[in-house]
Amino acid sequence: MSALPDDVRAIFERFELDLPEDPPDLLVEEGPLVPRDKLLGLARALKLEAHCLFFVYCAAAHYPPGPASRIPGMGEGELPDGTLVAYRVRRLAGGRPVDVPFRVWVPTGETTPSLVPVWVGADWQEREQYDLVGTVFEGHPDLRRIMLPEDWEGHPLRKDYAIDTPHFPWR
Amino acid sequence: MPLPVPRPFQRPARGATRHVEVGGVRVPYELVVDPWPDPYLDLDAYDPDADLMPINWGPQHPSTHGVLRVKLFMDGEVCVKAVPYLGYLHRGVEKLCEKLSYAQVTPIVDKNDYVSPMMNELAINMAFEKLLGVEPPPRAQVIRTIFAEMQRVASHLLWLGTWAMDAGGALGGGATLFMYCFREREMILDLFEEVTGARFHYNTHTVGGNRHDLPGGWEEKAIRVLDHIESRLPEYEDFLRDNDIFLVRTRGVGRLDPLLAMEIGVSGPSLRASGVDHDRRRDAPYAAYDRVEVKVPVRDAGDALARYEVRMDEMRESIRIARELLQDVPAGPITALKPVKMPKAIKVATGRSAYVGIESPRGELGTFVIAQNERKTAHLPYRLKIRPPSFHAMALLPYLAPGATLSDIVVIAGSLDPILGEVDR
Amino acid sequence: MSAAMVLDNPWLRGLVIGGGVLGVVLGIVAYAIWFERKFTGLMHQRPGPNVVGWAGLLQPIADVLKLFQKDDRLPAAVDRPLFVLAPVLMLAATMMALAVVPWGWGVVVADLHIGVLFALSITSLAAIPIWMAGWASNNKYALLGGMRAAAQAISYEVPLLLSVTVPVVLAGSFRLGDIVAAQAGGRWFALWPPGPGFFAFVLFYLSSLAEANRIPFDIPEAESELVGGITTEYGGMKFALFYLGEYLHTVVASAIASAAFLGGSDMGPLGDGLHWMLLKTLLLTASVIFVRWSWLRLRADQLMALCWTVFVPGGLVLVMASALWVHLT
Predict the structure, then answer these.
(1) pLDDT tens, position by position, C213-222
(2) What Å distances lie between residue C5 and A33, C8, C10, C99, CA to CA?
(3) For the residues B155-161, what does the mean pLDDT come to?
(4) How far apart are CA B24 and CA A90, in angstroms?
């Protein structure tokens, strides 16, 4: 895998992100961890300056309380319960497409800005992550469940979801 | 403030003549729509008298290609707002995959895009291989590519038949084309059956290679079948392209703004029909696509007819690629790892994640997988997300449906080629 | 009571011939369905019905028996009288048009002096039961189908009448018997005079496809858009009546087209006879079936545009051309 292009790297550096160099391909494959207050600004810069028009996916993963070293690039110490939201956008301009990934850490009980104002395609993606993992995206125009029924309890992709417990009215 | 009235996308045009560069991407100027229809249109403000008729299109409707439900607010026969409801086929595949080891996941994801199961297997196993750092041997790569291209032809044939049924009725001309398409698709399924023993859910890709080797003489047989299908394709084009009713039903219907398509993440034939030249097979080659030249058909019209043309061209291109590869399948082993006897044999404990996107018949089928961080459960993926192209295509419906009649919505939804198995997962 | 007495009494005569015609035509309709399925099988490269009887020839009987056995259910929210009445009226409206069709050898139930007008007006009455069915079903798809059907039937009435005016002008009579007689000796209106007659025949054929709700104009029941359109809520024998009415409409329209444009029972040098009329009717019905299984469906607004921008002006031109022909000869 080649390195990130210079203009994307420059945008990351302008937002004073901690660009991981160890392991060496972490930045290219998984991207930097973005503080939540910088997320919208970074997304706008990526779309308008780096021309990342194509929204590939947004995927959240739940982490129970534990050491921060479980997440590459997170550093040391203890982490509270929370979700890691991984985004990937793509620039299609000029020959080979360039994937730009970035990640956001969202502690449970707090919210992260929604990217719908930047990429409308984030709409259903974020609804799906909210439905399955329980990450709350602030500023989403229509944050409802998408896969499960409206009255479903809990978010099944969380690690603490009791999968062996019967859920009304199924099972 | 004036209300955003939904504007019909239908405009008579035979394809864009001017192009404009947006973000380095050259797109047809005439397709760019501003503003896009509002998917969250306030119906009370739009129509204070509430004369709109809500119609539940699906989940039990013959042309929703599964169990999609879309709540359409109709002004007469013209749609004003469309609200899709998903989840009728939600099986919790991602949660299931967290509880199954890397070797056990493949047959589960077969059922996602049940029209092209080969693609699901390929995408997920390529993501696992990237996580493990395993490179399949050349023979496996070539066999995977051949399977993928033949699966693309089979999938497009099924799409063509069902879409013709949408446009022409299950009790009309559409059914005739449907039968012809299935006749040819059967041949490809027969070939797959000969290799894998299954007609549909093959479970033939494994981490690091393939499970089944090609039987003797299979290559010649496959080339004969592909030649036969290629000779049949003009028949379908005669059936549709020379039919004025087909042309008036599809030309200018469901015109898709390429910028909207990119932001939503629509990929594959739907994106290429709107003038964006992007194909994973050529732009980020995987498997054995670097051995062959992939020509990518692109159209500028962005309507249902253009999507049909792109798919027809893709079928020819897939047949050519598969035939080229079939003529020279390298010898050697078909798997880089030893055959897996135990589910727990494959272990990753790095906590790293990997994303692989392949070009499925419907667009970019991606798999994002996070590995476990601890040794104890290292045989299970920590989190697995499938990025299904149909999910993104269905997110287009609230934008394409306003301004279209019910008959057009059927054609538009069909032209996006949704498979509800992978939309809902 | 001798046979002569029966034929002399117009009431008895009508009863006997009418019963005979109805029986034969219903048989034709039943076997038109068999033929359609077999023919479609041929087109699709599949066998078609082949289990009941030789080559599936008893299939229509099995189908009817199956439909009779079905539970006659009424959905809860329908308007009961209208819902029950609609399929019966639909069948009756199309059946009544059979009365004026001259089959040849004097077999005609009632050779009215306004036969053409009677047939067209009575078949266009079928729009009312279709609308009734769409309304009474209390279903949005059925309602849309009914609305489409009403618009379609009323619009296509105009080109249908215009196209059939051409043989009326050429023969100088509204009586179908006179129109057939005027074509005696192979001077069919579809062939002679060259031009208006042939185009009027094409116009009549297409418009009657639309009147009978056949593909490519079957938008009222458009099963891929409206599930089943007007027939969504119907089942069992009530559905069968709709189905039968549709096929009967096709056969009746084919018969009228044969009589008005293709010389009816006349076959030029090959003589004259009922069998030629039947053959022509069957061939036209088969062509309708062929069109059905090889064409796609139009959209409702395109259907209306086709009617008002092409068919109606074209029909007017044809009527004027035929009047000019009559004036000049």
Answers:
(1) 777 777 777 7
(2) 103, 5, 10, 21
(3) 90
(4) 12
Distance between CA A83 and CA A126 in Å, rounded? 13
Tens digit of each residue's pLDDT (9 = 90 or more) over C28-68: 888 888 888 888 888 888 888 888 888 888 888 888 888 88
Q: Tell me what the pLDDT averaged over chain C comes to.
A: 82
User: Tokens 């459960």 correspond to what residue?
Assistant: B377
What is the pTM (predicted TM-score) of this model?
Answer: 0.87
Query: Where in chain B are the domains?
Result: 93-424
pLDDT band at B145 (very low <50, low <70, confident <90, very high): very high
| CA atoms of B414 and B167, how far apart (whole Å) | 9
Distance CA B381, CA B383 (A): 6
CA Rg, chain C, in Å?
20
Q: What is the pLDDT of residue B12?
A: 40
B425, B90 in Cβ contact below 8 A? yes
* Segments of A39-146 assigned E as strands: 54-63, 66-67, 78-79, 82-91, 98-107, 111-113, 136-138
| Residue located via tokens 């769409």 | C134
Which of B63, B239, B248 faces C225 most closely, judged by CB atoms? B63
Nearest to B173 among C140, C215, C226 (CB): C215
In chain A, which among 45-84 make CB contacts under 8 A with chain B?
47, 51, 53-57, 59, 61-62, 69-72
Confidence of residue B340 (pLDDT cuts 50, 70, 90): low
- Encoding tokens for residue C59? 């299939």
- C289: nearest CA partner in chain B: B172
Per the structure block, which two tokens stand in for A125? 């993606």
The whole-angstrom separation of Cα B334 and Cα B204 is 11
In angstroms, what separates the C-alpha of B424 from chain A's closest C-alpha? 7
CATH of domain B93-424: 1.10.645.10
Kindly list the domain boundaries of chain C, sorted by start residue: 77-328
The minimal CB distance from B368 to the residues A62, A86, A95 is found for A86
Which ranges of chain A have pLDDT less than 70?
A: 1-2, 94-95, 165-171
CA torsion through residues B130, B132, B137, B142, sign: negative
